[in-house]
């Protein structure tokens, strides 16, 4: 029996990494693997525990077929290691911190994936993005505008399940597991 690809998406600052960290042990106990992305951002950058590589290294890895999925967003390149296909083939569930903009391509390759859209109140999101200090106020405001467009289009997309992370992280973790158990909009 093939495993299930769980595609977690949401705007930068919505708390995807915090959610994954908080749920990591329980996910592992269920046999669900959380994938470590490869990103063309310094490994010392604050944020997710990704493998940081140079743009040249990323291009070489991509050319060698190292990624099951890859995309570019916000001036960076992102890759999901090809190893996920092996894990899925042996029946393991795999959770990927994905891209809203790459959802259509991911669905083509993995048509049975479960899509979880992590949302957060815009005011909370703005505070989080500013607190990270990675971008200027203008860049944060541009992100927020893009976020509104993505969220509006994705909430109308069948098979995308909303998970609000505006409240406590513990509550969001519990709703994530309800969604995974039910495999449908029970995570809302």
Automatic annotation (TrEMBL):
Catalytic reaction equation(s): alpha-D-ribose 1,5-bisphosphate + ATP = 5-phospho-alpha-D-ribose 1-diphosphate + ADP
Function: Catalyzes the phosphorylation of ribose 1,5-bisphosphate to 5-phospho-D-ribosyl alpha-1-diphosphate (PRPP).
Top-level taxon: Bacteria
Molecular function GO labels: ATP binding; ribose 1,5-bisphosphate phosphokinase activity
Gene Ontology BP annotations: 5-phosphoribose 1-diphosphate biosynthetic process; organic phosphonate metabolic process
Pathway(s) served: Metabolic intermediate biosynthesis; 5-phospho-alpha-D-ribose 1-diphosphate biosynthesis; 5-phospho-alpha-D-ribose 1-diphosphate from D-ribose 5-phosphate (route II): step 3/3
Name of the molecule in the record: Ribose 1,5-bisphosphate phosphokinase PhnN
UniProt enzyme class: transferase
InterPro entries registered for this protein in UniProt: GK/Ca_channel_bsu (IPR008145), P-loop_NTPase (IPR027417), PhnN (IPR012699)
Residues bound to ATP: 10-17
Keyword field: ATP-binding, Kinase, Nucleotide-binding, Transferase
